[in-house]
Amino acid sequence: MKHIKTTAAITAALLLCLYGTAEAEYIDSARYNYSANKAEIDGRFFDNFNDSYATILVLKEGGNINKIHDSLVEKQDQVKIKDGKFSFSFPLSEPGSYTAYVEAGGKSRVTTFTCANDIDMINADLFTIGSEDAFAKVVDMYAKELNISESVYGKLKDKEKASKLAFAEKDNVTSVDEVRDLIKAYSYMEALNESQYSLLLDGYNIIDAEILGFDTLDEDYKVTAYNLYKTLINDAGKTKLFEMMQGQNFKTLDEMKKSFIYNATIAAVKYNKNSGTGHIKTVLENNNAVNGFDLKNYNSSSGNAIDLSLVNGSEWKKEDIQKLLNSKTGSKDDSRGDVGGNGSNRGGTTTGGGKPSGNYSQNYSVNQPDKNGFTDIDESTEWARESIEKLAQKGIVNGRDENSFAPKELVTRAEFLKMVISVFDLKADNAQEAIVQNVKHRLQVEKMRLDRLSNTIPVQFSLVKTKQGAYLDRLMSRLSTNVQSKISEAERHFEILSQNIQPILERKMLNESHRLQLLQQRIQAQDPELLLKRGYSITLKDGKSIRSASQLKAGDIIETRFAEGNVKSEVK
Fold this sequence. Notes:
Distance between the termini: 111 Å
Number of helices: 18
Shape: rod-shaped
C-alpha cells in the first residue's frame, strides 16, 4: 500500500504522540466558509507561543491518524503564531467531512468540519422557510453541514429554542455563513438561559467572543466591560459574573450583552485584580452608559465607606447597589442619600457592611483615623502615612486612639502577633474563597460533562434517526413533486402539439390534393385518345407507334388508327 510522503508522515507521527495530551490550547472555530469557498480553522494557544509555528494536518472522511494513506490527506501546512493565535484558510478538493489536527509548542487539538454537497439546496431551504418550527427543523437537519453539530448548539437541552430565537433575525442576514453564526450566537445565549454557562468558556476565555458580539461591546456601547473582563477581573470574578448571568431567560442578544456589561462592572468592583478601592469610581463611570446608576451622591462624597461596602458586600442586584451608592455609611439600609463631606465615617468604630468577599474573614472593629488622619504622623514618618491608614482601615493595625498612632513607639509581641494573624487571616480567607469558587466551577463542569456522556448514545441515535427520517421524507417529497411536475409538463407539451398539428395536417392534405389534381390534368393532357378525337391519327407497326418514315420499308404492313376505326395498308 502506498503511504504518505515523509513530511506528512513526520507531521502525523508528531500529532499522534501529542494528541489528547494538552488542554492549554483551543480551536475557536472550524468551518467551511461557503461565501469564500474555503475551509477556515482559527484558534489560540494560551501559552502564547509567539514566533513559533502551528502545524495542521487535514484528513478526508475515513482517514485515521494512526495509519495515513496519501489519498486521504487533504492539507498539511504551517502558519506562524501571532499573539498566541493561528489561522488556516484553504480550498477543498471536494465536498465531504474532514478531520483537522493542529499542533504547536508540544500541544495539539483535533476538530471536525463539513463541506456540504449541495449548498444551493441548503441556502434555499434556510431562506424560504416561513415559520419558526420549520426553520428549527431545517437547522437541525443541516447542523453537520453548517458546522454547528459539534459546537454549543449540539450540547443544548433545547436546540429548537435557540433556532426559533434566531429565526426572528434571519431576515437581517444574507448568506448561509451568516445564518450559521447567528444560530451559534443564540445557542450561546440559550446555554446561559439553561444555566450552562461553562459552554461559553474554555478555561476563563470566552469562546467565539466575536460571534457573540462581546468583542465590540466597548466600541458599540461606549463602555470598558469587555476590556475589564480580559485584563482586570480575576478568575473568581469571571466565574461569579457568568453565575449571575445564567438562568435569566434572555430573548435577544442585546439583552445578553447589556447583562454582561452590568455584571462585568460589578465583578470588576468586587473581584478586581488590583487591590484596594481606587478603581471603583472609574469602573462605575466608564460603564454607566448602559448601567444607568445615579452617581450624584456617590460622586459628592469621598466614597471610602461606600467603596468598602461595594467591595465587601454580597449585593449584585441593581437596586441594592444603588442603595449603597446613595448611602452615607456604606450600608444599603441607609436611605438618607445626602452624602457630603467625608463619606467614610472614619471616626469611631466601622463595620464592613456584611461578610466580606475575598478580602475579610469576619466583621472587624478598629480604631480608624478621622478625616484628617492620625495627627501624630509627622514629617519623619510621613512616608508611611498611606500604608498605615490602609492597614488601619483593614484592621491589621490599630492606633492608640482615634487620632493617635504612636509611630515611634515599640511594638509588643502581642501586637506583632495580632498583625501577623490578621494578615494570614486575610490570605487564608482569600485562598478559601478561591478554592471554593474553583471547586464549584470544576464540579459543575464535571457534572455537565458526565450528563452529556451519559446521554450521548441515545441522543445521538435519536438525532441520526430523526435526521435520516427527515432526509428520506424530503427525498420522497422531492421525488413525488418532480415526477408530478414532469408529468404535468409532458401533458402540457402534448396538448400544445395536438393543437398545433391539426392545421399543419390540414394544410398538408390541401397541398397534396392540389398536386394530385395537377398531375391528373397533365396525364389527361397526354392521353392519345384525346389526340385522336381532335382529328389526328396514329400509325402503328407491330403494335408500336411510328414517328418517322425511315422506320418503314417496302412490304411492311402498317395500321392507322383514327378516333373511329382503323385501316391496314402495305408500304410500296
